[in-house]
Write a structure and sequence with these properties.
With 132 residues, this protein is an all-alpha fold. It is built from seven helices and no strands. The chain has one domain (27-129). The chain has helices at 2-17, 23-45, 47-54, 61-74, 81-98, 102-110, 119-129. The longest helix is centred in the first third of the chain and has 23 residues, at 23-45.
Length: 132
């Protein structure tokens, strides 16, 4: 029992004698934590940040926005964040189903006449057709 107490004392002393790291990393910690929170908030609210994170190859939000905002009106959808998010979810599901990148599907949708089709139906048809 006495040996255990002495051993525990050495462990406590060894822990106390460690040098504390310089104050710079601990001062940076709140900044990096805040940056992480800011990035997570943007990811939660910005459909293009979400798509950039989810799309194959992580294309830039600006690149995605240019294509999505061009495609939505072609299929009778208003350009708003709800429709952008719908488009992103649809494209990710189609990539998983058919294996074509979201940007390739968008590019094909831009060059294919809409003919009154709904976005989801047209995207599915186009992605399936890319396998043939």
């Amino acid at each position: 029992m006495r040996k255990i107490i002495v051993f525990a004392g050495f462990i406590v002393l060894a822990g106390c004698s460690r040098q504390q790291p310089s104050s710079t990393p601990t001062e940076q910690q709140p900044k990096s934590a805040m940056a992480g929170v800011t990035k997570m908030a943007q990811l939660a609210t910005d459909p293009f940040a979400q798509m950039s994170f989810s799309f194959e190859g992580n294309p830039s939000p600006a690149e995605i926005q240019a294509r999505v905002d061009k495609v939505l009106p072609m299929y009778g959808l208003e350009i708003n964040n709800d429709n952008r998010s719908l488009a992103g979810r649809t494209l990710v599901a189609l990539r998983k189903q058919y294996g074509h990148s979201e940007m390739d599907i968008l590019n094909k949708m831009i060059s294919t006449p809409a003919n009154g089709a709904k976005f989801e139906e047209a995207a599915d048809r186009i992605a399936a057709g890319m396998n043939q």
